[in-house]
Automatic annotation (TrEMBL):
This is Cocaine esterase. The keyword Hydrolase applies. The keyword Hydrolase applies. Residues 278-530 form the Xaa-Pro dipeptidyl-peptidase C-terminal domain. Its EC number is 3.1.1.84. NCBIfam families: CocE_NonD. InterPro entries: AB_hydrolase_fold, CocE/Ser_esterase, Galactose-bd-like_sf, Xaa-Pro-like_dom, Xaa-Pro_dipept_C, Xaa-Pro_dipeptidyl-ppase/CocE. Pfam families: Peptidase_S15, PepX_C. The lineage of its organism: Bacteria, Pseudomonadati, Pseudomonadota, Alphaproteobacteria, Rhodobacterales. Keywords: Hydrolase. It comes from Ruegeria denitrificans. One of its GO terms (molecular function) is dipeptidyl-peptidase activity. SUPFAM superfamilies: alpha/beta-Hydrolases, Galactose-binding domain-like.
């Protein structure tokens, strides 16, 4: 079907701000519309991905609209924060604008991965009349519990990493071909770019800031059908089962083996994402009786052991389906912790856990799919060796897990602030340890994420860690391992002091969601990825990725990564864009207060006689009382790199109970 592409049009809001939109239109007259609403720049940032999706959806008779959030890309206004009231209010107006166009039949669906997956759910929560269905990929239902900021009340290093990335992203100018006032607007962006990492870090508990945009606050508010998709290599695995379990509208979950990418462009095991999307929207936007509501509630890829490496590679496993979720095929099996292993009944005695700070170097990048490569968890054996491990006997029969493993435990500490990190691993007969799932807990949050408490050394407490969702089959002869540690660097920012956590085994147990099925139902698994259009960009510099671990003379363990995202020319408007990023994580094994993170982003933009370049530098360090955040920006213009602005910012944020 022929598709008309409108490279840029303006959506004028009631206060006069204009949001920039790219539109793909079928030639069949009024059609349902699909909106993707992001801050990642339609003109260049997501243009390659958009070519692989919206053109296909338009050929299936959908009007597709890709909108830059205010203050990003080519849109006017000032960006203020992720999922802010401004963003969501503007989103409601965008949906109403789309529904009123003569090329739209009044029905609008939303699609998005990560940011777009978040605000799709958040806008459904607000119930704009024209929004009829949502496809949310790699998203969350709880912004405090399951995003890049905190996990179990522990600070994630990605709070600074992502804050640094957004800092770099937000300094990029609008395209002069779109905005005549681009330079004035660019200077305003450079001067006013938010220090998001510091802003987020000040909200250390689950307060009203995080409750805003967390759809779990009122499941009943969402009244449109939701298809929730993610991948097991992604960081965002908990939302799809939670949505299926709690929403009262038609809701389906799909979790494949993928990383943080749409399934058709996955580097692990690409699948036919387009058919899933079109089938869902055909049912709920066009009213076609195609059986989308009769699909199993939960379809997922049951993984098995493979030789885990940081490099992208195929997964091992099979697709399964559960007609309902929670499933009657999943029953809880309880294993009691015993020194070095498990037992059928409770045990006495205690086990002390005191880990070196650099444990976790085999954890992989927090959200795989954001780097070029070298980002997946590797063999966990070296991290296991620095942990306290509880191993099963070699399994006498295969064991399937589907759901969230729970660790219930009784503990005491020797410091007022402490962490515990639980990893569940599948250990082969050759001793190769593959991470199945993990989760951290700030033990000060043992009772509540809203009102954490300073711990009293020596006092005994009870807590629970619900590890992240998993679907994993352990083969006969393999060993199920629970590995516990008091740190997990660089994913989790360490507690202020080295700590010893003592488990009191009388009340320590592992609760497994064991799946047993006599007769499998048809999984209706996604088929292999079909051919799809790609942006025919001229590649001027190829992407590349590197990672290395070193030990410095003073004993610091350092992880260095470099990702060159390449340089290319867009065939539609000749804009040339290049970017790269370096990251540095450092810590001394014996001193958590030496933890530091540094990153440097570089962007270049060119067209004929127009050039700009942007370099940003960010750093976060700490001591036992405070976090220290620093950022620097340098922007230049022209072939001679004439300086436009150089600026530095610093913030000190008290640690509280982190």
């Amino acid at each position: 079907m022929p598709v008309q592409t409108i490279e840029n049009t303006w959506i004028t809001l009631s206060d006069g701000r204009r949001l920039a939109a790219r539109i793909w239109l079928p030639d069949t007259g009024p059609a349902p519309a699909i909106l993707e609403y992001l801050p990642y720049r339609k003109r260049d940032g997501t243009a390659p991905r958009d070519e692989t999706t919206h053109r296909v959806f338009a050929e299936a008779n959908y009007a597709c609209v890709r909108v830059d959030i205010a203050g990003t890309g080519d849109s006017e206004g000032q960006f203020d924060d992720e999922y802010s009231e401004q963003e969501l209010r503007d989103g409601e107006k965008v949906i109403a604008w789309i529904a009123a166009q003569d090329w739209c039949d009044g029905h609008v669906g939303m699609i998005g991965i990560s940011w777009g997956g978040f605000n799709g759910l958040q806008l459904a929560f607000r119930r704009p009349p024209a929004l009829k269905a949502v496809i949310s990929v790699a998203s969350t239902v709880d912004r405090y519990a399951d995003d890049i900021h905190f996990m179990g009340g522990c600070l994630l290093s990605d709070n600074m990493n992502w804050g640094s990335q957004m800092f770099a992203y937000l300094t990029r100018p609008a395209d002069p071909d779109i905005r005549a006032n681009w330079r004035e607007d660019w200077l305003a962006r450079l001067q006013n770019v938010p220090f998001s990492a510091a802003d987020w870090l000040r909200h250390q508990t689950r307060d009203s800031y995080w409750r805003h945009g967390s759809v779990c606050e009122d499941w009943s508010a969402i009244q449109v059908p939701v298809l929730a998709i993610t991948g097991w290599a992604d960081a965002y695995v908990n939302a799809p089962p939670a949505l299926v379990e709690n929403l009262t509208v038609p809701t389906k979950a799909v979790i494949g083996p993928w990383e943080h990418r749409y399934a058709h462009i996955s580097k692990l095991d690409p699948a036919d994402f387009h058919s899933e999307v079109i089938g869902w929207f055909d049912r709920w936007l066009k009213g076609q009786e195609n059986g989308a509501e009769d699909l199993p509630a939960y379809r997922t890829y049951m993984q098995e052991h493979f030789n885990p490496t940081p490099q992208n590679g195929p997964r091992q496993g099979r697709w399964i389906a559960e007609a309902n979720w929670p499933s009657p095929h999943v029953q809880e099996q309880i294993l009691h912790l015993a020194p070095g292993g498990f037992s059928e009944g409770p045990n006495t005695g205690s086990v002390a856990i005191a880990s070196p700070c650099h444990i976790g170097l085999q954890s992989g990048y927090f959200c795989a799919g954001m780097r070029i490569d070298n980002e997946l968890p590797g063999d966990q054996s070296s991290d296991d060796a620095m942990s306290v491990c509880f191993d099963s006997a070699p399994l006498q029969a295969p064991l399937e897990l589907l759901g969230r493993v729970k660790l219930k435990f009784q503990f005491s500490v020797d410091r007022p602030v402490a962490q515990l990190v639980a990893r569940l691993c599948d250990v082969s007969s050759e001793g190769i340890s593959q991470r199945i799932s993990y989760r951290s807990l700030n033990l000060c949050h043992y009772r509540s994420h809203e009102t954490p408490e300073t711990l009293r050394p020596g006092e005994i407490y009870e807590a629970e860690i619900a590890l992240n969702e998993c679907a994993h089959r352990l083969r006969e002869g393999h060993v199920l391992r629970l590995a516990l540690s008091t740190s997990y660097w660089p994913i989790v920012w360490p507690a202020p002091n080295a700590v010893e956590v003592t488990l009191h085994l009388q009340d320590c147990s592992l609760h497994l969601p064991v799946r047993e099925v006599m007769h499998e139902i048809q999984a209706s698994e996604p088929s292999r990825a079909q051919d799809y259009p790609v942006l025919d960009a001229e590649q001027l510099r190829s992407p590349a990725s590197q990672s290395e671990q070193i030990e410095t003379e003073d004993g610091q363990i350092v992880l260095k990564t470099f990702d060159d995202y390449g340089k290319s020319r867009d065939p539609y408007h000749d804009l040339i864009v290049g970017s790269d990023v370096r990251m540095h994580y450092g810590i001394h094994p014996g001193d958590p207060s030496t933890a530091c993170f540094e990153t440097a982003w570089n962007f270049t933009f060119e067209r004929e006689d127009w050039q700009v370049a942007i370099s940003t530098r960010c750093r976060m360090s700490c001591d036992t009382q405070n976090f220290y955040l620093y950022r620097q920006l340098r922007a230049t213009e022209g072939a001679d790199e004439i300086e436009v602005l150089t600026k530095e910012w610093s913030e000190t944020v008290p640690r509280g109970l982190l």
